[in-house]
Amino acid sequence: MFYRALTLLLPLLMAGTLLAEEALSPPTSRPNPHYEPLPFAPSLPDKFSWSSGKTEKKLIALTFDDGPHPQHTPALLDILKQYNVKATFFTVGKNVDRYPEIAARIIAEGHEIGNHSYSHGDLSKMSDSEIRTELDRSKDAIRRATGVEPKIMRPPYGGLALFPFQRSWIYTEYQYPTILWSVDPFDWRDRNSALISQRLVAGAHTGAILLAHDIHASTIAAIPDTIYQLQSKGYTFTTVSQMIAQKKNQKPNNDSQD
Ligand SMILES: [Zn+2]
């Protein structure tokens, strides 16, 4: 069991993220057992599942889950505009229905919205038809609010049981790659802006997908310094879809790379 866990965690360890350190601590130390980090699916082709981009450009993707929030999301959008940063929002469908004008603003300001289900239940505990209902209702809410459809999805809590069959049929039916993450600052647990920023910056790497939640004031407060530090290190922020598309456009002679 430990060996299996270690095998699954190896890419994270190699990425040198703080996440790996956290993941090796006993599960009993976790207040929320759903947040087990397993952000990759090594037996699946890339198109089904991404925990980081394959780009060789110094790109990075900030992702914000679980909004829109009536105060925190607009405050975050103001910050992103100030720093000219594009991000990706994995909104919860019922919150989009509640705050459609904020979802519309996200799209109008050049960010991406991904499908994060309608009610934020654990998809791994649902039947396929229940998962379809969650994804469909969320997709419809996003389309009603913004006029665009999501192109990517992230299962709430990382949805461990979505490995690998569900990710495969979700891709086939919805053309949604499952987007996980490579850096987790545990902002849902530690409401400390300095700590969140420090973890995001320390974990950052080329192609990193940074996980955060735009429903906590402490997370929003961490973002200006995080952006400043990462931009100072030469990173360019991009949306998830733009980053994962990079792979196709790069290295045209990479016969042996896939
Ligand atoms: Zn979530």
Task: Please explain how this structure is put together.
There is one protein chain. With 258 residues, this protein is an alpha/beta fold. It has one domain (48-249): Alpha-Beta Barrel (TIM Barrel), CATH 3.20.20.370. It is 43% helix and 10% strand. It contains ten helices and seven strands. The protein has helices at 2-15, 18-23, 72-82, 93-98, 100-108, 128-146, 165-174, 193-203, 217-232, 240-249; strands at 49-50, 59-65, 88-91, 112-115, 178-179, 208-213, 236-237. Strands 2, 3, 4, 6 and 7 form a five-stranded parallel β-sheet that branches. A two-stranded parallel ribbon has the order 1-5. Helix 3 (72-82) runs parallel beside helix 9 (217-232), helix 5 crosses helix 6 and helix 8 (193-203) runs parallel beside helix 9 (217-232). The chain is globular and about 45 Å long. The two termini are 29 Å apart. The protein binds zinc ion (ZN).
Q: What molecules are bound to this protein?
A: zinc ion
Given the helix and strand composition, which structural class is it?
alpha/beta
Give the helix tally: 10
What's the architecture, going by CATH?
A: Alpha-Beta Barrel
What is the CA-based Rg, rounded? 17 Å
Spatial separation of the terminal alpha carbons = 29 Å
Assign the CATH topology. TIM Barrel
Mean pLDDT: 83
Structure summary, number of beta strands: 7
CATH homologous superfamily title: Glycoside hydrolase/deacetylase
Helicity, as a percent range: 40-55%
Order of helices and strands: HHEEHEHHEHHEHEHEH
How would you describe the shape? Answer: globular
How many structural domains in the coordinates? 1
Proportion of residues in extended strands:
5-15%
CATH class: Alpha Beta
**Sheet with the most strands?**
5 strands, parallel
Uncertain segments are: 1-42, 251-258
